[in-house]
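Lab notebook, bench 4. The sequencing result for the construct came back, and we need a structural model before the next group meeting so we can plan mutations. Quick request posted to the team channel:

Model the 3D structure of this chain.
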Amino acid sequence: MTAPHDVPAARIQRGMAILATTPRPPAGLTPHEVIHRQGRLCVRYYPPSGVRRQTPIVLVPSLINKAYILDLEPGRSLVAALAERGHPTYLVDWGTPEPENGGEDVAATLRMLQRSVDRACRHARAPRAVLFGYCMGGTLATMFAARFPARVAALVTLATPVHFAHGGRFAAFVRDVDTRAAFPLEELVGPDVMKPAFQMLDPVGNVSKYLAIEAASHDARQLARVLVRERWLEENVPLPGAFAAEFVREGYQKDGLVNRTWVIDGEVVDLAKIGVPTLVVTCDRDFITPTAAAAPLAALVGGAGRHVALDTGHIGVVVGGEGPKRFYPLVDGFCREVAP
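Done. Here's the predicted structure in token form:
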């Protein structure tokens, strides 16, 4: 990659101007219907094409991102890819919390996920679902599978932290944070607090971003592709303070899933209770969830665990070339193998 000091300033400035003045393309365009809504939570259903599979797939995104990250653009949409392959596909949309939601902790969030899975199974007329979780959403899906195994036919995690002690730059950043002071329990943690932390994980990321935008500006289609990904990065969602404090404290500071110290509603979250087939996907160029933080899940579950590493990054795995070429077929093939 070109070193920042070797880049003409005019290219960076032009990229900045384009980013500031160009409207963002639409996202979340795959046809669907909302089958459940309660408060800010909703569950979106993407009808399958061709021969319909029996077992639904419930997709669980991170709480800090809009749900459309899994349906970002035509040709780069996980929900569309799975539906086109015959899977009844459901997407959990966490919505945007309001100030009164600041006291919601991980247990409250898992109850929202439980309602989502129940509604998806009822709608699909199936007893169980394949649960797919991405990043923080994968951690929640994993905890759900450990606590409610009867509802889960199989588990797929992507770039999901479980061994938080190996969480890389972010783990080092929050290791000594006073969670009580940093995350007021009855308030929201806004994107303005979280965004600088993620930018510190990749200090030269902005330079690379502006250069990519400038390079793409000569092709309208390519520019639209770059800018729709910017929506992913720009449109973050606030977190309930109680959730943020617990996730940092019990996860990154105490490594509670591996050490079996994370207690939800009086019960220890025991990953060995996950007795279903589990696919753990990691990304070799992921600085948000390093492989060492995600891969151990395959050995910690009580069922058959499989680890697959892809040569891509945290975002590119879903919307880059590896998505339709390798990642989407990987998830489809695993689901066909382990669930009817």
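The chain has a mean pLDDT of 89.
Will bring this to the meeting.
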